Amino acid sequence: METLVVDHPLVAHKLTALRDVRTDSPTFRMLADELVTLLAYEATRDVRVVEVTVETPVSPARGLRMAKPYPLVVPILRAGLGMLDGMTRLLPTAEVGFLGMIRDEETLQAETYATRLPDDLSGRQCYVVDPMLATGGTLAAAIKFLFDRGAEDVTAICLLAAPEGLAYMDKTFADTGHPIRVVTAALDERLNENGYIVPGLGDAGDRLYGVV
Ligand SMILES: O=P(O)(O)OC[C@H]1O[C@H](OP(=O)(O)OP(=O)(O)O)[C@H](O)[C@@H]1O
Ligand SMILES: O=c1cc[nH]c(=O)[nH]1
Ligand SMILES: [Mg+2]
User: Fold this and answer.
1) Ligand 1: does its nearest atom lie under 6 Å from the Cβ of 15?
2) Nearest bound ligand to CA 143?
3) Given the CA of residue 196, which atom of ligand 2 is nearest to it?
4) Is 78 annotated as a binding residue?
5) Which residues pair with 125 in a beta bridge?
6) Within a domain: 28
7) Residue 18 belongs to a domain with what CATH number?
8) What pTM did the predictor assign?
9) In total, how many domains does the chain have?
């Protein structure tokens, strides 16, 4: 598994504001949206393209166009929805699949309550978006759904990752031969006794959408 921590002053600036407990929900949503656009720029470096020629007003010009089948973007509900618009703005031809998952706050096990994905993902590049990679249980389960349906490679875009979560992902997919990349704005210190990322930003879903 490949991990990329995007090292850029604009990313750090926006992430710092996102972490701040005084940041309200509307601002949090705006910052998450801006951050995903910056992360997606790096995360899509390997997106498949084909060579094409277009006519400029002056002459033919060779260039690149997104290749088919177009990528699939998969937000993990609920918090991942806060990253969807930023992704589709950058990848307007992408298809969107949905996974609803919730982590049991006692056992820290992820439970799936909704799946709406294409049945056949053969040859597809997939981008999973979820702000938090904590124990890694949620993301690993989500990625298994995609590989089980034939996905070619999966890139996860997170705002924050914990070392424990990355280690779990590494262990889970080590011998599978599946290409996986994790792109994150920061690698934090650790998880606390409740499975929260430290220093983190708290509960991403609650900060985006309020407590339900
Ligand atoms: O790496 P893990 O330990 O599995 O935890 C990370 C998951 O927890 C959060 O979602 P949550 O379960 O709170 O659901 P929500 O998006 O509805 O708030 C987060 O958005 C991830 O999906
Ligand atoms: O720190 C954490 C861990 C899991 N989910 C969150 O929203 N935040
Ligand atoms: Mg939550």
Assistant:
1) no
2) 1
3) 1
4) yes
5) 153
6) yes
7) 3.40.50.2020
8) 0.96
9) 1
Beta pairing, strands 153-161 & 125-129: parallel
Indicate whether 58 belongs to any domain.
no
| Domain membership flag for residue 184 | yes
Does the annotation flag 172 for ligand binding? no
Domain of residue 87: give its range.
2-52+65-209
Is the residue at 60 inside a domain? no
65: preceding bond cis by omega (within 30 degrees): no
- Surrounding residues of ion ligand 3, Cβ less than 5 A: 203, 205
Instruction: Measure the CA–CA gap between 9 and 103, rounded to whole angstroms.
Output: 32
- For ligand 1, say whether the CB of 97 is within 6 Å of any of its atoms: no
Residue 109 has a CB neighbour count (10 Å cut-off) of 12
Answer whether 204 contacts ligand 1 (Cβ < 6 A): yes
Q: How far is CA 50 from CA 47, 102, 163, 186, in A?
A: 10, 38, 36, 32
pLDDT in tens, the chain (212 residues): 999 999 999 999 999 999 999 999 999 999 999 999 999 999 999 999 999 999 999 999 999 999 999 999 999 999 999 999 999 999 999 999 999 999 999 999 999 999 999 999 999 999 999 999 999 999 999 999 999 999 989 999 999 999 999 999 999 999 888 899 999 999 999 999 999 999 999 999 999 998 76
